[in-house]
Write a structure and sequence with these properties.
3 helices; four-stranded antiparallel β-sheet; 14 strands; five-stranded mixed β-sheet; alpha/beta; Immunoglobulin-like; 201 residues
Amino acid sequence: MKIILTIAAFALAVSAQAAEFHVAKSGNDMNAGSASKPLQTIQAAAELAQPGDTITVHQGVYRERVSPPRGGMSDAQRIIYRAAPGENVAIKGSEVVTDWKHVANDTWTITLPYRFFGDFNPYSDVLEGHWFRPRDRVHHTGSVYLNGEWCGEAASLEDVLKPAADDPLWFGKVANETTTLWAIDKQSEELTLFSGCSVPS
């Protein structure tokens, strides 16, 4: 009986200490994460959350890589990530770029400094795996998105310079200091930045 009471008391103590952290596009990562003073990034909330806590993310598109430093301890002590009720939330591993320059036909290009990608450049990262069929050519983990839709990687720059076909393509070249991309249509504005959006702890 004493053991049962001790366990019950511990569970109540954990429940009483559980916190809720709020994240909003209008927030600041220096805030405490309350509803009135939310954090700005999900990662900042992940750094603070402990087993039993809840992270509530408010309306918006969050372009970041979330790598939680810890997970829950049991089904009763999970760290819960959730969208605020009635609000639409999306996490994307891509970034919008707008400085595309017209080349020819339907092809546009942009050159970005290597620092744009931080410590991971997906356009120099080769896609590999026993499950993947490369078809005798190199593929990269980077992508270009046209109006939110994924575009295929071309085998050569010449393929991208042709008039647009039904399936839009992109091609990239990585130099020491820059990455240059060519894509069909100037609305190809979202680029992959991260190797993943969320990494389980």
